[in-house]
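Work Package 3 (structural annotation) set out to generate three-dimensional models for the target panel prioritized at the project kickoff. During this period the team completed the workflow that converts sequence records into discrete structure tokens, so that structures can be stored uniformly alongside our sequence database. As a representative example, we reproduce one entry of 512 residues exactly as it appears in the project archive.
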Amino acid sequence: MTEVSIPPLIEQMLQPGFYPHPVQKAIRLIQTHVSYVLLTGDYVYKVKKPVNFGFLDYSTLEKRKHFCEEELRLNQRGAGELYLEVLPVTLVGEQYQLGGTTEAVEYTLKMREFPQEALLSEMFEQGKLEEAHLEELGRVVADFHAKTVTNDYIRSFGEVSQIRAAFDENYQQTEKYIGGPQTQEQFEETKRYTDRFFAERRELFQSRIAGDFIRECHGDLHLRNIALWQGKLLLFDCIEFNEPFRFVDVMYDVAFTVMDLEARQRKDLGNAFLNTYIEQTGDWEGLQVLPLYLSRQAYVRAKVTSFLLDDPGVSAQVKQEAAKTAASYYKQAWEYTKPRQGQLILMSGVSGSGKSTTARYLARQIGAIHIRSDAVRKHLAGIPLLQRGGDDLYTPEMTQKTYARLLDLGILLASQGFVVILDAKYDRQQLRQEAIAKAEEKQIPLQILYCTAPPEVLQQRLQHRTGDIADATADLLTSQLRCAEPFTEKEKPLVKILDTTQPQQAQLSWLV
């Protein structure tokens, strides 16, 4: 490989004397195809290269200044602790100066440096990334999206023509890799799926626009752009250079993280993130566009990796690895488009019987969507999930509305190939029979998991329950046990009884 020459400014930025603060012994330079990144110890400085790739244009000083300022503004949302300021670089004689009062010749973005081990991608490699981290990420991303901006201009990027353009471009740019990392069958079937999705689901895209789900998102939300630093999850390095990559459906962001975890063979962690996010936002309908965006994110990874195969500066060994990685991503993108058999699983049992714990465990194992009645009820009432509900939240009318919404969501998603766990007491025959009738009508397989435990265990669990969205307390237990209606002869073949004092793995091995 030929040695790449470094501009005089970057040469000077590699010298400790350039900075008005102490630096580490050897300043590290990381180059990407669009920027120089200098790690000085406590701070990082990023200088954009004067390049124009069409989708990204930093070719003039004015544009580089604008995009430095945009990068600062946009990343203040998810990682304000890291993004500090945009500084002008001036030139006095042959000496570049940071700050300076003369006319700027360049601009640099100053950020706080954090250790590489804080990246979620690094934590994953070291085996330190746990389910609790992904559940917290679900809450953080939900909060991030709730605060993002939308308006008529941003919403216009949710039109089918806008979204489709990016998909079509991906296919055009990857046709030449058919017979290499991509197969003819995968290419044709993936493209056919997205073509059909755009043609047949126009109303769905319109509902996403009408529901304000097209927002100024992150746009590049994979594990290398998320850090756990000083006890807080930070979403950094969002897309500042291209509006169509940033003005997207919130599910586009969610899909990136889920796809990344699934590419790393950890569907359980992707499930933890996804179910937490959806429960926080109440956007269960958004799952309808998720397979489309999962496929798109895997395909983009495949495409970008494929580009290395055309680079004359890349070694044969690196190209061999790139071909293998790209092939894996093309296959993943294709697999997301395959039809799946939906299924409904009803949890049943009184408060404290272990329904949610069992449902959560099962969801991680089989990749199910876990919908809790407590969350549905509070979203219907418009109150925060952790806020305790008043009596008006538990009227018969509100309970009827909750179960109706729960079943509507279950049928909607199971009809589209999702396995859905409806997590509620389902202690009344009428509620169970409504679900069974709907599932039969739509030819959706249905099972009932009836969770049980001795009364003293139920009591103990309810007394010690904290920090959960469920409001039920131990004093309700007696009336719940008294009012629970037995399973009918028609229901019994669908029911599996689980003693939740026993290990989950053993009890659910037949389902997993």
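The chain has a mean pLDDT of 94.
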